[in-house]
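so the lab meeting is tmrw and i was supposed to have these ready like two days ago... anyway. pasting both below. for each one the top line is the aa sequence and the line under it is the structure tokens. i havent really looked at them closely yet so no promises
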Amino acid sequence: MRLSGKVAVITGAASGMGKAIAELFAAEGAHVVVSDLRMETAQPVVSGIEANGGKAIAVAANVAKEEDVQQLIDKTVEAFGTVDILVNNAGIMDNFVPAADLTDELWDRVIAINTTGPMRTTRKVLPIFIDKKSGVIVNIASAGGLNGSRAGAAYTASKHAVVGFTKNVGFQYANLGIRCNAIAPGGVNTNISTSINAPNSFGMERAMAGMQLNPRAGDPEEIAKVALFLASDEASFVNGTVVTADAGWTAY
């Protein structure tokens, strides 16, 4: 039980990597807050965790809204007394739109969810972590946050920002018992592709140029295991960095 008694908040936890992380954390003893846009998608994950003997609650939250973020953490503290682990997993794609075709609306939406969301949740939990001189943040970045064309311009910029934010938080709060790391997954079998509804043909062609080099797609459970390591005391000396999990795709 590597997370016994810990309280973990996971955004975007109704499906994919977030769901796998929630389930694994619960199996390792954490009290889990399953957060997603809608209760009807988050609650089944909670029910599954409880059926396996775990403890969890569902909280509906849109990380692009400050009031939802406030409510998410406040409800967590109300239910479990504190927060020990924050996993910023919620995110969307950007239809591979290149810079020349990028609209303000698309840019603002992608940045709001992928970048501003993790900032807001982090900002909200840090006073709790600082007070007890303990806490872990795991951000889900992307291979697109390490390289230039795994997606469109907005997604790429948003995930690069997550990487920079991760390193800043990790170093600045390191002496207060707080760790902040990111995972950069490669291609993973999740439903994030549902946020791709009208892909830009030019942008997608450029972004797909290196797909033949990808050894394979991963499963959400494989990313969850990396998150578990980073959230646990086993990673006590790992801080302010990015762990790439992509079967070697970015090593070429």
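ok protien two:
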Amino acid sequence: MKENRINDVETWSKAKILGEETWDITLFEHTEKGRNDLIEPHMHDFYLLLFIEKGEGIHEIDFTKHVVKPYQIYFLRPQQVHYWQLSGNTKGYQLMFSKNTINLIHGLSQLPFFQLGVPQLINLFPENYFNLKSTIEELNNLLLKNQNIDHEISILQFFLLLKKIQKLYNKEYPLLEQENKDLKIQEFKNLLEKYFTEHHQVAFYAEKLNITPNYLNIRCKKKLGITASQVIQQRIVLEAERLLITTNLPIKEIAFSLSFFDIGYFYHYFKKWVNKTPKEFRLSYNIYNKE
């Protein structure tokens, strides 16, 4: 199967982007080390926050296109497919950090903007952006120092920045705050990410959560606005989209990799959500030749 994936989307490390190895937390001004023309779709093995202070363009994350404008923050998790094309006058910051960094301080609430199926950006008022900018600049100054105490303070400053952003994010998306307090919903999402390629039935996840399938559907409908079954279907279709666009695997092999052994049913399943067949989606979505 591997030989068919000649167009596999590449997973980038921080070292690939910056040309150097960096510590777990990396922060820089976009005008210094950032690129405006990251038009090759790729994934990261780290988390990324992109702060836009000035500029315009497009930023596409998992096949959803966003219009870039001043005073935005974009949030990317590892393994999300994305690319951007920004204007030459784009100004802001990029904050990159490893998967381990997020667990350096225990007992804090989960960061909502890195959960599955949530909005990937927030739009800020200028005063809120510049309040965050002062915190970013303080973090940047600490990261440049070498003493152990400065290293420890930088970790605290890093989490202070994330928590300030979380407060603004919760204000923009208040319903998500309630959703993130539901531990069963979060556990369901984590299980789904682990098993979605093999298990498509609500009953499988409900059993692991020690609740009934009907109750899981009701709980998801109340908290997420869609049933557990629809949550599962959306995740499967997203993976199918990623494979259709970022590889040249035959559609039959993509279906098999997602545990569809009836190709006709896979076509029906995909078209129900995307309003295109897998073949039509692949032909119409030429991600490697964007205008």
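from a quick look at the 2nd one: Residues 148-172 form the longest helix (25 residues). The chain is about 45% helix and 15% strand. will dig more after coffe
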